[in-house]
Design a protein that fits this description.
alpha/beta; Rossmann fold; 2 domains; 8 strands; binds guanosine-5'-diphosphate; binds magnesium ion
């Protein structure tokens, strides 16, 4: 396998995961499985890629996430110390991620290849309700206090965690959540145990990122009970890999309008514990970033198989297509056997029997004896010819090629019918149907078949000829055996004739008996010869079935079985992704480990 650069490898993996996510959204489950794929792709491009690219660890990224109206924008303002995020009572107001920074100069981290994947940087300030695949960076005045978090951190205000099915702003949220080194999970008093945000939290915890939970809008006196309840009811059932998890749960009771308007000065009681948590988690930055990257890597390694499981349904459909191909194949082979092979005579073997009998006649001087016996058998020969001629005329068998073509047609018909029947159920069937309908699939099948048919014919002719010839050639090559057989046959003839003559003394009826006995012994030997030849004939019949499978039905079935996954189809892309993803994850693991120890 070719060795890709780190950048190419992460781009390829993110691309494959992204393709799988889109495929998943198109096909089956637009929910959690697609979300998880998006998160995986985003971890590759936003955490692992930059690390392998030797990006500096700073600035660290803090993403504020949570359900609709929980108070995310309010918390973003608490963190930044400025009222820069539009807190808005309208649910789902923030539709794209917004970064807050005090930096006035260039922002090198935004320009890196693959940063935030498909999200484009907005060059002008826009309301956060703009529902597009964009992100914006808002620069705010530096906080002169000693709690100037924005010096080292970028704060991200994110779209709401609402439903898994949201295909627009949800992936944007996941993109930024993947980028984050620290997550701040916001839940409001009234809806702190909503199901969807809790499920998101559970997924995000799998990345090993540390989470600070912030409970909002309660009465101050209710805070301890609410925290206890939240920890017990919401957090306790959640799992997370070692090192991550919800490291603290803070309460920010209902703020006054004045506090909301100037959180840095009016709400330090709530702000400073929050900033402290972030500062501790982010110091030293190198260690924080290392944790992010390792968490991302472990996420991929642990969930790799499950990420691919979204293709299970597709693979089952592929298998059902392959099963239909196999049914067609079995019918095809049966028809060939039934309609052609069982009635095929293999005339070559009649010739072989003839040659065999000739061989058994005595050579040299013995020819005279054989000749005499031959003459003796004249009445028998004449009779045999008459019987052969008056016997039932053989019905000519149908030509092999016609039978094969008919069998192929019904194979094709079966495939066409099944594709039409299931076309509405899955893209694979629709693809096959389209192949038959306007892709000339039937013609292509016939072309392949004809090509293979020619090879089959050649091989078959060679095979039949070789087997038939082997019957007498073997004897010719072993004169000792041949002579014994010839001697035995002659001895048998002589004994029988001698016996007949001796039995009644030489008499007129010997003219009848002797030719009869000579014919009988010959018939006996011929019968033995025929047994040998017929055994070979049967073997050849089986061999021909095998050859037909080998040349015709098996290669065609294999080609058909894979056909939906060729020619640039979705299935080809899917199989490529399925093949490459595990390898790429394994390679990233090696590279990240190498990079961290160097
Ligand atoms: N008075 C008051 N309003 C709050 C508080 N926290 C949030 N809100 C209001 O609740 C609404 C939703 O808050 P916001 O931060 O926009 O939530 P988001 O949707 O999660 O970003 C806004 O109208 C906020 O002003 C608080 O502590 N006090
Ligand atoms: Mg908001």
């Amino acid at each position: 396998m070719e060795t890709l650069t780190a950048r190419a490898l992460t781009a390829q993996l993110a691309d494959d995961l992204g393709w799988l996510e889109q495929h998943c959204r198109r096909q089956c489950d637009p929910g959690q499985a697609a979300g998880k794929l998006r998160l995986a792709a985003a971890l590759v491009r936003n955490c692992i890629g930059p690390m392998l690219d030797e990006q500096p660890p700073t600035p660290l990224h803090v993403a504020v996430v949570g359900g609709a109206g929980a108070g995310k924008s309010t918390v973003a303002n608490l963190l930044s110390g400025a009222v820069a995020a539009e807190a808005n009572p309208q649910a789902g107001f923030t539709r794209h991620p917004i970064a807050y920074t005090t930096t006035n100069g260039p922002l090198p981290w935004t320009g890196r290849a693959g940063f935030l994947g498909p999200l484009q940087l907005l060059t002008q300030l826009c309301p956060s309700s703009l529902d597009e695949d964009v992100y914006q960076v808002r620069r705010i005045a530096a906080d002169s206090s000693s709690f100037a978090l924005l010096k080292d951190f970028i704060i991200w205000d994110c779209p709401d965690m609402t439903t898994w099915a949201a295909s627009g702003y949800l992936p944007r949220l996941l993109e930024v959540a993947a980028l984050a080194d620290i997550l701040v999970y916001v839940a409001s008093d009234e809806r702190y145990n909503d199901q969807a945000p809790t499920q998101f939290l559970q997924l995000l915890l799998q990345t090993g990122k540390p989470v600070v939970a912030v409970l909002m809008k309660m009465r101050e006196s209710d805070a301890p009970a609410l925290i206890a309840h939240f920890q017990q009811e919401v957090l306790a059932p959640l799992s997370h890999p070692p090192g991550g998890g919800v490291v603290a749960t803070l309460a920010v009771p209902f703020l006054t309008a004045a506090q909301l308007a100037d959180p840095a000065r009016q709400a330090p009681r709530y702000r400073i514990p929050l900033l402290n948590q972030i500062a501790v988690l982010g110091t030293p930055a190198v260690a924080a970033r290392r944790r992010t990257v390792l968490g991302a890597l472990h996420f991929l390694v642990r969930h790799g198989e499950q990420l691919l499981s979204v293709a299970q349904h597709d693979l089952r459909v592929l298998q059902s297509w392959q099963a239909v191909v196999a049914v067609g194949q079995a019918d095809f082979e049966q028809r060939y056997l039934r309609e052609y092979l069982t009635s095929e005579k293999f005339r070559g073997f009649d010739e072989a029997l003839h040659r065999l009998m000739e061989l058994l006649e005595l050579p040299g001087l013995g020819k005279f004896l054989s000749g005499a016996l031959y003459i003796l058998r004249t009445p028998y020969r004449l009779l045999k010819d008459v019987v052969a001629k008056t016997g039932r005329p053989e019905t000519p068998s149908r030509p092999e090629q016609r039978i094969l073509n008919d069998a192929l047609d019904s194979w094709i018909d079966l495939l066409r019918k099944e594709a039409a029947q299931h076309a509405s159920e899955h893209g694979l069937w629709a693809h096959v149907e389209a192949g038959f309908h306007d892709g000339g699939l039937a013609e292509r099948i016939r072309e392949r078949f004809q090509q293979n048919y020619r090879n089959f014919q050649t091989d078959l002719a060679i095979e039949v000829d070789r087997t038939a010839r082997a019957i007498y050639e073997q004897l010719e090559k072993t004169p000792a055996v041949l002579n014994t057989l010839r001697g035995s046959k002659f001895a048998l003839d002589a004994a029988a004739i001698g016996g007949t003559l001796a039995a009644g003394g030489i008499n007129w009826h010997d003219f009848i008996l002797v030719p009869l006995v000579a014919s009988l012994t010959h018939q006996l030997v011929e019968l033995l010869g025929k047994t040998v030849v017929d055994a070979q004939r049967e073997q050849t019949r089986e061999r021909q079935q095998t050859l037909m499978k080998q040349h015709l039905s098996v290669p065609l079935a294999e080609w058909l079985a894979q056909w939906p996954a060729t020619g640039g189809s979705d299935f080809e892309r899917l199989q490529r992704a399925l093949r490459r993803i595990p390898t790429a994850i394994a390679q990233l693991e090696t590279r990240v480990q190498a990079a961290m120890t160097s």
